[in-house]
Design brief:
By secondary structure, the protein is an alpha/beta fold. The chain is built from 14 helices and 8 strands.
């Protein structure tokens, strides 16, 4: 290694503190934690290759976001929209029927562990708001360029001139694109109202009821946890249910016998969540949306590997 290469590596190491915020940005764009990690890796690879030629015409942060955004835009050219079941079909009414087929070109939104993206504690509340599943799902309706502009301007608060530089366009084009993106989001994004922070005592109480309902097969606890307008989504299929009565029936049937389930609290997408085990084996992750009156959404990701991805053990720990 030459002296120059050593100096470049030392300077490039200063870019490492940006990794978590870049991962959050790529996740908002791609709605997939694994694709976002790949995009960040590609961003750092491209940045390393170009580091010697970086002339400082913008800040390093703006330069990195320019690379990351364009990596994501390229990735989005090669695949369709990611969604939750409620973004594809009407709620299910047949509890035992075969779910409708997944439309061509549709993939599934993935949850992301907060531990991967949490950085400065002073900005954690803003970070959580920008990663909630409902927002991530709404963003996926936007064309990629509109999505990028909305995230860069509204979530990250970059000036229009910097966004124009990142996307190789004009300030006027950024402003008009942002206007169209806002209008589209207003059409597709449901009004959630107040949502509790994961650390709020009310959120913790609802989480406790949810866990107790499954671990103890406690119907009363499950009913306490749900709001009248609750929705239960089985991500990975087109099955979802709307309303407390339907959701409660599905959950009570799934709860089985006391001891069948073991659940460990985590935080995903800025929301309380659980890593779930069924009869000792990993089942997946459920992301909860706690609000006044109860849980409004339960998004169940029945992918066993997610349990380990969230840093939890491969088999259920002893109670």
């Amino acid at each position: 290694m030459t002296v120059l290469q050593g100096e470049l590596m030392e300077e490039f190491a200063d870019l490492e503190p940006f990794r978590k915020e870049l991962l959050a940005h790529c996740y908002r764009m791609l709605a997939s934690a694994h694709e976002a990690e790949d995009a960040v890796q590609e961003t750092y690879l491209r940045a390393w290759r170009a580091w010697a030629d970086f002339e400082g015409r913008s800040s390093v942060r703006v330069w990195l976001y320019r690379i990351a955004t364009n990596v994501c835009l390229t990735a989005l050219e090669q695949r369709g929209r990611r969604a939750l079941p409620s973004g594809i079909v009407a709620p299910s009414t047949d509890f035992d029927g075969t779910p409708p087929p997944v439309p061509d070109g549709i993939g599934w939104i993935e949850p992301i562990p907060e531990s991967l993206v949490a950085g400065d504690p002073a900005t954690i509340v803003t970070l959580r708001e920008s990663l909630r599943l409902a927002l991530i799902a709404a963003l996926q309706y936007l064309p990629p360029k509109q999505r990028a502009v909305l995230i860069l301007r509204e979530v990250l608060a970059f000036p229009a001139a910097e966004v124009a530089t990142m996307l190789d366009t004009s300030v006027a084009a950024v402003k008009s694109t942002l206007q169209r993106a806002r209008a589209r989001i207003d059409e597709t994004s449901p009004t959630q109202g107040e949502v509790y922070e994961p650390t709020d005592p009310a959120a913790k109480a609802l989480l406790d009821d949810y866990i107790a309902g499954f671990e103890n097969a406690d119907t009363a606890a499950l009913e306490r946890a749900l709001r009248a307008d609750a929705a239960l989504e089985m991500v990975g299929t087109t099955t979802w249910f709307s309303g407390m009565v339907s959701c409660l029936k599905v959950m009570v049937d799934a709860a089985g016998e006391p001891g069948d389930w073991r659940m460990i609290p985590v935080i995903a997408n800025g929301q309380p969540a659980v890593g779930s085990y069924y009869k000792g084996e990993p089942y997946g992750v459920a992301v909860l949306t706690p609000a006044p009156g109860g849980l409004t959404h339960i998004d169940v990701f029945s992918t066993p590997s997610l349990v380990m991805y969230f840093g939890l053990p491969a088999t259920a720990p002893a109670p």
